[in-house]
Every structure is written in C-alpha cells, then in structure tokens.
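Cross-check.
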Amino acid sequence: MLNSHPSGLRFARWHHSERPSEPSAVCLLIHGLNFKPARMMAIAELLGSNGVESLIVSLRGHGDNFEPATGAESIEQLRLEALKSTSRSTWLQEAHEAYTVAREFAAENGVPLLLVGFSLGALIGTDMLQDTARNVSFDGMILFAPALRVHWYTHLLRLLAPFPRLVLPSRSPRDYAANPGTPIAAYNALFESLAAVRARGDSKLGIRTLAFIDPRDELVSYRGLQGLGETVAGEQWSLVALKKTLRHDDRDFHHLIIDSRSLGEAIWRDVSRRVRVFLSEVVAKGRRQS
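Predicted model, tokenized:
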C-alpha cells in the first residue's frame, strides 16, 4: 500500500507492509536506469508480504522527479529533460536523503535496514555505501542484475561522453521504460559511479547479500559478479543465476528480471522463496544482536 511522500522528499514514497505497525525490516528500494520506479512494485509487494517497509526512490529523470512545467512542455518532455541534466552527484544526494529517512525509521522500530536495488539502483546504493563521508550502513542487500561489473562493450558508450544530451533508444519494453530513450548524461553518471566503486576496491561490500542475475545479461557481467563475490565478499554473498526464457511476443532482454512478467511465474516464485529465506535470516540475526 503506497503512502504519501516523506516530509521534504518529493522523489521518494513509502510502500507499507502488511503489518505496518510491526515491521520486520525497512528497505531503501532503488530502480534501474531509465526505468519506471512504479515497475519496482512487484518487489515492494514481495517485501511487504514479509513485513518489510519499503521507501521507493525516484532518481532525477524518473517517475515524477523533474522540475515543474514553465511553459507548454509535456510531462514526458520535462522528465527526459531532467534526465539529460542529471549527474552522479545528484543521484547520490537523492539516495542519501532517502537513506537518512529509512535509517531513522528502522532505528525507531529497532529493525534491520536493507538496500534493494535493480541495476543502476544497486550501483548507486553501493556507491553511497562506500562513501565514508556519508556514514552509510546496511544490514543486508538484495540486488537484481547489479551494475557493479559490466561487459567490456558497454564501456564503448563512454566514447559518446562529450554529447550528454544525445538520446539513445531504450531496450526496455515501452511500459517499463521511464523515457523513450536514455541520454548520454545518464550513462556518464553511471560510469562515474562504476569507476568510483572500482577505485575504492569494493570496500564495505562484505555484508550479507542476495544477488540475482541471468548469466546471459546483455549489460552486466555474470563472471564479473562471480569474481566480486569470491574475492571481496566471500561467504557473505549469494549469487543466484536465473535462466529466463525470452518471449517472442514482446521486446524483452535478459537484463530485465524484476517481476513475474519479465521472468515467468515459475522463476519468480523461486526468486520470492529465496528472498523470504534471506529476509528471515537477516531479521533473525538482527534480533540476536539487539
């Protein structure tokens, strides 16, 4: 059940659990690049059915996070314009402001705080986590196709860095994409976050993490994530390979793994089961430490 925006945060909205007066945990939920925040609802509902309160973030250029109209511009034009002028620092600041609200709510209720992110959302949350100046911590992470390691050919987009307002067509199905295309400015911000995470040596990632990816992901490197889990996070990381089957009646791709429509009912049930087990373990650990 969606509620109003937290005070002062027009780019974040609470999704309440089935037991809002007795939450089992709180999570900061962040969407992917040029992706509708509302499409994260299946994950929020899965978390909510397990007692987790979710604060859903809409990064600049997504959802309703854009400047109000000053003329005849449409909402779609305003949203895309906001994405053309975004930056890593903007996204990090927004994520941190939402994190502060989620952290305070978790502390008030004495429950664990989680990061749940898809693709860019996982990257921004990790970038924020590693920034020692921000003093961020999570009790666990649930990551879907986290853009912490990307294929070499993805970096070819950096050749277009001098043209931030250039818009490339989106590969996501139309009803998942926040905008018809993705500006290079948004890719520039993603690569800046990726470089920052890699430069820090993936410090602070050794926390309990459940990560999902299709090994055939077109953007994120499955082998790269395997190496990350083995060399940095060790036994704290659980990387789950999802072998989804692409449909022929819709424009789809392996990177999209966030609901039953994109994965299929059977695989989504398996994801849901693994998430429930993970949450029960994190919550149980939090109770032992309290």
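The mean pLDDT is 91. The chain is about 35% helix and 15% strand. Passed to J.P. for a second look.
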